[in-house]
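Worked example 3 (structure in, sequence out).
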């Protein structure tokens, strides 16, 4: 009969089980492969969520702009860019999420290869954007001048141009003289607004007619009442002025991509090591 202070074989086995279980739990928590697995999953899940949001916003924006043929271009319509970027993020993150959870080497290798391709494309696109800056500016100029000709025919186009002109305190694409190509503001037009500019060009928009007939006068007189500089020049200046911010964002995105690729590579290595140990 064991005494009160004696340890029975059953108690000893139970204590050993608790110690083994505790040791196993600690070992698992300290397992590098486990942290890599769930870190990769969390990162890709967040990317997948962001991709779904961007894809949804892009599709919604395109449905709202249905019928606008001249804005149907990746460069001029941000909705297309949201759809493209959102789709890429959506599909890449699926490879990362499922590959990490299932520890599937094929999916993880596909994920790594895709990340490498995307990273290279981003670097090339960034270099081309700086090298071909003048051509990009000319393309933007052409598209906005084309949009100005349709101002007044569609509310979406009118609102977009008005927002741009108010936001950047500008008028037209190259200058306020670009409004000559619009049927309502042409100097030979019979409309009340002939030889003028929209209200969004006015420095102080006192009335809907504040910009009417203003192009009949000299530039020195006109610039007292309306903005005479073009919007594309203001846009390019804002872009160049914020190059540091844009560069930091690109650097953070690139670091996240390389970090994810490194995690996936290490996870594949650990899977191979585990497979060899159990062979």
């Amino acid at each position: 009969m064991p005494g009160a202070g004696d340890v029975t074989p059953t108690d000893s086995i139970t204590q050993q089980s608790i110690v083994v279980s505790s040791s196993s739990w600690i070992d698992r928590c300290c397992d590098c492969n486990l942290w890599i697995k769930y870190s990769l999953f969390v990162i890709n899940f967040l990317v997948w969520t962001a991709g779904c949001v961007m894809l949804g916003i892009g599709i919604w924006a395109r449905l709202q702009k249905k019928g606008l043929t001249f804005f149907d271009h990746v460069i001029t319509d941000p909705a297309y860019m949201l759809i493209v970027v959102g789709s890429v993020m959506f599909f890449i993150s699926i490879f990362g999420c499922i590959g990490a959870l299932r520890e599937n080497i094929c999916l993880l290798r596909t994920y790594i290869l895709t990340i490498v391709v995307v990273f290279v494309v981003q670097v090339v696109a960034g270099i081309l954007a700086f090298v071909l800056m003048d051509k990009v500016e000319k393309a933007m100029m052409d598209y906005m001048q084309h949009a100005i000709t349709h101002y007044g025919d569609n509310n979406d186009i009118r609102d977009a141009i008005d927002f741009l002109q108010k936001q950047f305190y500008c008028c037209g694409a190259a200058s306020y003289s670009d409004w000559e190509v619009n049927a309502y503001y042409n100097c030979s037009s019979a409309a009340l607004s002939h030889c003028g500019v929209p209200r969004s060009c006015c420095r102080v928009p006192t009335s809907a007619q504040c910009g009417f007939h203003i192009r009949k006068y000299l530039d020195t007189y006109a610039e007292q009442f309306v903005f005479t500089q073009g919007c594309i020049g203001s846009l390019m200046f804002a872009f160049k002025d914020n190059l540091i911010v844009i560069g930091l964002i690109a650097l953070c995105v690139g670091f996240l991509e390389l970090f994810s690729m490194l995690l996936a590579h290490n996870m594949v290595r650990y899977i191979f090591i585990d497979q060899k140990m159990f062979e």
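Notes: The chain has nine helices and no strands. The radius of gyration is 31 Å.
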